[in-house]
Write a structure and sequence with these properties.
The chain has about 140 residues and is mainly α. The protein has one domain (about 5-135): Hypothetical protein, domain 2 (Endonuclease III, domain 1, Orthogonal Bundle), CATH 1.10.340.30. About 55% of the residues lie in helices and about 5% in strands. The protein has helices at about 5-15, 20-35, 50-55, 65-80, 85-90, 95-100, 110-120, 130-135, and strands spanning about 40, 45. A two-stranded antiparallel sheet has the order 1-2. The longest helix is centred in the first third of the chain and has 15 residues, at about 20-35. It starts with 5 loop residues before the first helix and ends with a helix.
């Protein structure tokens, strides 16, 4: 299952780091409802995850530690400079794409792989972790 974009994957991993899945989802949902764009759909009003420009202006958010906010600012800046544009990491050799993603503060090897595979939608590749290797 893919994220909507590498930006949303990076933001999701950053928010959810060292939190439960439920806590991360709840925080992303609250952020979407409070500062995300509203979209009128046949199923009712939905809210998108906040645009990078909005995250960069954020000074605090209830339930989001200051350290995570700093890393979210770095993710937002990377999205605005094109580093998290879906086509960019997909156009690079996998090792180079991972190296570029790891330059974003707060993004280590594990998250870089998640962003590349589940955010950019790299095909014919799997993450380099024991669980995935055993499953494959």
């Amino acid at each position: 299952m893919l994220f909507n974009s590498p930006y949303e994957a990076a933001a999701s991993f950053t928010i959810g780091h060292r939190s439960s899945i439920a806590q991360g989802r709840a925080l992303r949902r609250r952020m979407s409802q409070l500062i995300g764009d509203a979209i009128d759909t046949p199923l009712g009003l939905q809210h998108a995850f906040p645009r990078p420009e909005v995250l960069l202006q954020l000074e605090s958010f209830p339930g989001l530690p200051a350290g995570k906010l700093d890393r979210l600012h770095a993710v937002a800046a990377a999205a605005l400079d094109g580093s998290l544009n879906r086509a960019r990491p997909r156009s690079l050799p996998e090792s180079e794409a991972l190296a570029q993603l790891r330059r974003i503060p707060g993004i280590g090897p594990f998250f870089a792989q998640g962003i590349l595979m589940r955010g950019a939608g790299l095909v014919d590749a799997v993450t380099d972790d024991d669980v995935t290797k055993q499953a494959a």
